[in-house]
Amino acid sequence: MKWFKSKTLYSRAKRYIPGGVNSPVRAFRSVGGYPIFIKNASGSRVYDIDGNEYIDYVLSWGPMILGHSYPKVVNALKRAVEKGTSYGAPTELEIELARIIISAFPSIKMVRMVNSGTEATMSAIRVARAYTGRDKIIKFEGCYHGHSDGLLVKAGSGATTFGVPDSPGVPRDYARNTINLPFNNIKALRKTLNRVGRDVACVIIEPVVGNMGCILPKDGFLQELRAVTKKYGIIFIFDEVMTGFRVAYGGAQELYGINPDMTCLGKIIGGGLPVGAYGGRKDIMMQISPEGPVYQAGTLSGNPLAMTAGIETLKTLSKSGIYEKLEKRAEQLEDGINEAAKRAGVKIYFSRVGSMFCTYFTDREVWDYNSAKMSDTKRFSKFFRSMLSKGINLAPSQFEAGFLSTAHTFSDIENTIKAVRESFRTL
Ligand code: HOZ
């Protein structure tokens, strides 16, 4: 496989854009080489500028659950674009998307649209602080909730990939109000809450962590979190930017039976267009301006194109059999990768919830940030490069989740497993 054009474009991009990319992990720094520049995408495939074809497991980092260029979404967008691309005024589309979200997530009684997951989490935390009159927040090591100041403390995703989980530029006073605790460790949380429980505005969590690979909550962990946050009057926020409409139609809260106070969404609800949303209990959401005093606004919030793509995507996802189909394909992939590892004698830990997964190169179980960091990232890079050369597009970092779409066929997975077998033999 040749990547001449991508190489040239990357040199050009670096002249104008820091690192040549608009989001750090895309630069391929941790896996070596240069990014492939995408020309177009359709179904389970992406095509690069050099004419190479890949089975895609990045899926724009999650949103494309129906595959790329899903005809219903594309056609609806074509019709919508003719009507104007932004009005900065309310539309019926916003009500429809809000209605669909609220009917899928019983814990959400009201919802506000924004433009990204970062905006959603940042705004939800502001509301939680205003509602409780408290400043401190608790997050978990390796969870990534976007790049707003107070959340870039021991953060996952690119922050972990590049070894700067605590970003310079975040005022110390800000970071001081962020308490970081180990994921899946209820004892550590209890101990902290004993000390400062009444100063904490919210606990924010990725219920399935997709930003240090894919880490599952241990049995009872989320339930315990729900109970202790209630005890201390703390707002419990589920960051379901990745898991919402992904691990189940009603997200991780449906899967694990949790009723958080607030939920953040993004990715899938925009059907591949820039969107985010935060919602939750009515008494909390009524704090938001113009109903209440908490300010949050945005010119492109509720954008008609993003609403249209989101509505069409969620309508399709609500049809029966979709999540069962995703589960079947994901199981096929999991079994194939585990079997290939066994045959090749490569130690891996394959972690998965529904159509979200990660292959760690370690002989231990992965339950938190420290165990995720034990993965052999050099081995991952070698694996990544080998897979890419065989036409399989994985996320270019050990600390990102992989995703499947309804467009991935049985033979796509078979071909992927074949590439995995060959790649494992070379490690
Ligand atoms: N933080 C995103 C995934 N966890 C990466 C976004 C991107 O590079 O597009």
From the spread of the alpha carbons, the general shape counts as globular
**Which range does the strand content fall in?**
5-15%
What Rg, in angstroms, do the CA atoms define? 21 Å
Structural class: alpha/beta
Could you say which small molecules are bound to this protein?
Answer: (4S)-4,5-diaminopentanoic acid
Listing every helix as H and every strand as E from the N terminus to the C terminus, the arrangement reads HEEEHHEHEHHEHEHEHEEHHHEEHHEEH
Which strand order does the major sheet show?
Answer: 4-10-9-8-7-5-6
Oligomer: single chain
Please report the number of helical segments.
Answer: 15
Major pleated sheet = 7 strands, mixed
Q: Which residues form runs of ≥5 with pLDDT under 50?
A: none
The portion of residues assigned to helices is 25-40%
How much is the average pLDDT? 96
Total beta-strand segments: 14
Terminal CA distance:
19 Å
Give the SSE map.
Blueprint: H1 4-16, E1 38-42, E2 45-48, E3 53-56, H2 71-81, H3 92-104, E4 110-114, H4 117-132, E5 136-140, H5 158-161, H6 172-176, E6 178-181, H7 186-196, E7 200-205, H8 221-231, E8 235-239, H9 251-256, E9 262-266, E10 276-280, H10 282-285, H11 304-317, H12 322-344, E11 349-353, E12 356-360, H13 369-373, H14 377-389, E13 392-393, E14 402-403, H15 410-425
Parallel strand pairs: 3-13, 5-6, 5-7, 7-8, 8-9
Antiparallel strand pairs: 1-2, 2-3, 4-10, 9-10, 11-12, 12-14
(4S)-4,5-diaminopentanoic acid binds at residues 23, 25-26, 61, 157-158, 211, 400.
